[in-house]
């Protein structure tokens, strides 16, 4: 899954983990001001990601 910079139109980073197509992506604002990303794939997996480090949360 690639995250794109809308201002420049270039890929910012690539998130790996899903073995099939990603079907959904959601931004989740947290009470402390951070934002997490959640992705759901055709492989039936759901992953949570830290927005700025793009680290997958295990």
What would the keywords be for this entry?
mainly beta, two-stranded antiparallel sheet, four-stranded antiparallel sheet, 58 residues, 6 strands
In short:
This protein is mostly beta strands. It contains no helices and six strands.
Order of helices and strands: EEEEEE
Low-confidence stretches: none
Instruction: Please report the distance between the alpha carbons of the first and last residues.
Output: 17 Å
Number of extended strands: 6
Q: Could you say which overall geometry the principal axes of the C-alpha atoms support?
A: globular
Strand-residue fraction? Answer: over 45%
The major beta sheet can be summarized as: 4 strands, antiparallel
Q: What is the rounded Rg?
A: 12 Å
Describe this structure as you would to a colleague.
- The chain has 58 residues and is mainly β.
- The protein has no helices and six strands.
- Strands 3-4-5-6 form a four-stranded antiparallel sheet, with no helix packed on it. A two-stranded antiparallel ribbon has the order 1-2.
- It is globular.
- The model has no long low-confidence stretch (mean pLDDT 90).
Strand-helix topology:
Elements: E1 2-5, E2 10-14, E3 22-29, E4 35-41, E5 46-50, E6 56-57
Antiparallel strand pairs: 1-2, 3-4, 4-5, 5-6
